[in-house]
Amino acid sequence: MAAVIPETGPPSAAMRRTLGVRDGMAIAASSTAATTSIGIGMGALAVYAGRQTPALLIVAFLPILGIALSYARLNRTEPNCGNGYTWVGRSVGAWPGFLTGWVVLVANVVFMAYTSAITGSVILQFAGKAHLHNLFGIALDPGSTGVSTVVGLAALVTVTVTAVTGVRSATRLQWVLLGFEYTVLLVFCTWALTTGDQPFSWNWLNPFAIGSFHSLAQGLVLAVFVFWGWDAAFTVNEETKNASDASRGGLIALLAMLGLLVFAAIAFQRVMSADELIAQGPQALTFLGAKLSPEPWASLPLAALMCSAFASLQSSVIPTARGTLAMGRDQTLGRLWTRIHPRYGSPAAGTIVIMALSAAVAVLAVGIPKINLMILTAVNSIGLIVALYYGLTALACAVRFRGALREGPLEALRAVVLPALSALVLFGLGIYLAYQYATMSDHFEATPDNGWFMLTIPSLIVLSGLVAAAVAKWRRRSAYFTTGRGTDADTIALPMDATA
């Protein structure tokens, strides 16, 4: 049984520097979850972009690239597992800095909640293929949020255990899962590309052919969500042998994600019409497999989707626990989050608490009866939150390195102009969509097509962050607020857990 050694006891444990570029790539690639994004996201993107989905993905990548360069530049100067929380706090201000850390925490908790339900749904689809449709009188319906959530919570507990026992072993498992899912994804997408009966058109790559600015804006927020996750590599920068390894891992994973997404979007459209793609929704990848091949080969895309969901769950637990570790070091959150397990060198207590919070959110989401509606609700809400914290981090880069404006046009472009433009684009998208949500409905209803509901969720996340910040400033009296600086990663003494 675990016991806590007081801070006045033996020397504090520290996270171990055992990771390299490949590990950062594995964490970033698993967190972006290309197969899951492709499997459940192409239909949602097609709702807004139609046949221009490949173009939408390319356009959305441009501000994300600016954000990624901002992360790399800030990480080179100040590697910290809190990344955006620390960088924004020191460059822009403590309140927006804390809000950055808070919304990342909440967004990941919500993401893990709905991803666990997706994982459960995929497992139930496999059960259906094995002709297991009922268990103890309960219908094993993969479209049911309740049944999928119960099964998915077992998967969430499993990945939490692997995350607690060490990030190194977790990344090894992720490489195995990534290898399988990417192989299946590339084989089936290549098959679709070469045998599809829908004629290819260069107009698919024309963003100006998207129906309206509203469709473009909504589609861009969804696409930003699809790319979301590459920054997970930066949360293990205190566990990499060299801080720059985290930057290289994240950037390589992001570029690979762009290639996979655009390739898959074109491949899907070679096999399915826009109406088919929209109608299939989160089952688009499994529909593709069934359309191209007979069983048992048609089940391979479903197996790849399950591997992607498992890897994504695990890679979300890892960075979230490290973000709260940084906040705990600054005492903006409680000391519970700073406990490092002496054997595994991981923030074990925080990892378990995050799992519990995600499980609680997943249970609350059971009120949304159909899993495709739950996915759409989560994606839209998280998309706005991701745009907010990415924009704040890019703004921090532009503010911190504003002196580069005097160091020549190339340096000014990389350190200030591109980050600032990327931040403005994401802020603009968020403000525009918030206005659209506020004016599109005349009553409140808990559905993904109700503007007030879609605005309520991110608003509550931000409001709760401001309340938590007030507690940290005036009750905890955190130095993060009183001195304007957080705690350096290499100077804090962390309490460790001990096993009896």
TrEMBL record:
Origin: domain of life: Bacteria
Topology term for the membrane: Multi-pass membrane protein
Compartments reported by the entry: Cell membrane
Alphabetical UniProt keywords: Cell membrane, Membrane, Transmembrane, Transmembrane helix
Gene3D superfamilies with a match to the protein in the record: Amino acid/polyamine transporter I (1.20.1740.10)
Isomerase recorded as keyword: no
Primary location class: membrane
Record organism: Kitasatospora paranensis
The protein's name: APC family permease
Membrane-spanning residues: 25-48, 55-74, 94-124, 145-167, 173-193, 205-230, 250-268, 348-368, 374-401, 413-432, 452-472
